[in-house]
Amino acid sequence: MSTLDPEVTPADTPAERLTDGSAGGSAGGLAGGLAGASAGGLTEALVGSADGLDPELSPVEAEAGAELPSTSGLIAVTGSTGQLGSRIARRLAEAGAAQRLVVRDPARAPELEGAQVAQASYGDIAALLNALDGVQTLLMVSASESADRVSLHKATIDAAVAAGVRRIVYTSFVGAAPNATFTFARDHWHTEQHLRATGVDFTFLRDNMYLDFVPGFAGEDGVIRGPAGDGRVAAVLRDDVADVAAQVLLDATHSGQTYDLTGPAAFTLAEAAAMMSEAWGRPIRYEAETLDEAYRSRESFGAPAWEVAGWVTSYAAIASGELSEVSSAVEDITGHPPTGLAEYLARG
């Protein structure tokens, strides 16, 4: 995939996920920045204030020799006012889990049976220390894209460890690597490395691009534009990600695992256009752009260079094949198969 109040609208994209963002995002982002509709964020995420942030906070070491129990104890959920976090929080409530919703604005926190509410934002160390006191497991939804996202992530992880959190479940992105084509996936790699270095237990949920956002790739003229070539993307539905996350949060035996979360099949954007045409009863087509064309068309929105690069390289990552691998993790963990694009479109 923002602050502790994450998530973007489908038009804002994955995320990042793409993958995770803020419920009140502008109608742009992936569909906008990527498809050319309007400027906006890319993934579902938590957005946090950088005020008082010390990106050089040294990690606090986990208690030596301590073993994590199989149950997750009190679970803190960030991003519960956003699209992904709210889905996960609802599933935890339905399971009767003890959870604390960590949000920027308590007035916007969902009303869920048995859930506590605490106020804090990513990067607000004092507030995070208070909000995470007594928490055993933290769901850390990745922050929305920003120039200082990695610093916010690092400071939040350090605060969680200092507060005594024993396990952190982090929503990452498939193919996270220091040289990933998708520039925002590099942020996830740096976050994962920092979390590993703290010594606390972790689980990485590496989401593919969000399937929910794919229909928004088509512009008002019925054309999907981007430098994705004939590459394939194994996009995953946010509901499927939420199902996995809830199971992982409730069962600490998933500690130390990295799961690639994908849909049941990888498709090209031309194939996606054909499925949309059939489902909607009107012609949709894919028009491949060159990288130069993609940068020029999106620079017109006036977004900062790092954001434009994220929009364009999300398509380039499809072209490179980095988003094409299909995983069985969703079904392995939840017991049900992931939703495919044709099925999702048929729901209307």
Work out the strand percent. 5-15%
Task: Return residue spans where pLDDT drops below 50 for at least 5 consecutive residues.
Answer: 1-69
Helix content percent band:
25-40%
What is the CATH fold-level name? Rossmann fold
pLDDT averaged over residues: 84
Helices and strands, in order, run as: HEHEEHEHEHEEHEHEHHHH
The count of β-strands is: 9
Largest sheet: 7 strands, parallel
* Radius of gyration of CA atoms, rounded to a whole number: 19 Å
Broad structural category: alpha/beta
Largest beta sheet: what is the strand line-up? 3-2-1-4-5-6-8
Can you give keywords for this protein?
single chain, 348 residues, alpha/beta, Rossmann fold, 7-stranded parallel beta sheet, two-stranded parallel ribbon, disordered N terminus
Strand and helix map with partners:
Layout: H1 29-34, E1 75-78, H2 83-94, E2 99-103, E3 115-119, H3 125-131, E4 137-140, H4 149-162, E5 167-173, H5 183-198, E6 201-207, E7 223-226, H6 238-250, E8 258-261, H7 269-280, E9 285-288, H8 291-299, H9 305-320, H10 329-334, H11 341-346
Parallel strand pairs: 1-2, 1-4, 2-3, 4-5, 5-6, 6-8, 7-9
Walk me through the structure:
The chain is of the alpha/beta class and 348 residues long. Helix 8 packs antiparallel against helix 9 (305-320). The strands form 2 sheets. Strands 3-2-1-4-5-6-8 form a 7-stranded parallel β-sheet, sandwiched between helices. A two-stranded parallel ribbon has the order 7-9. The radius of gyration is 19 Å and the shape is globular. Helix 5 (183-198) links the parallel strand 5 and strand 6. It is 34% helix and 13% strand. The protein has helices at residues 29-34, 83-94, 125-131, 149-162, 183-198, 238-250, 269-280, 291-299, 305-320, 329-334, 341-346, and strands at residues 75-78, 99-103, 115-119, 137-140, 167-173, 201-207, 223-226, 258-261, 285-288. The chain has a single domain (10-346), classed as NAD(P)-binding Rossmann-like Domain (Rossmann fold, 3-Layer(aba) Sandwich), CATH 3.40.50. It is built from 11 helices and 9 strands.
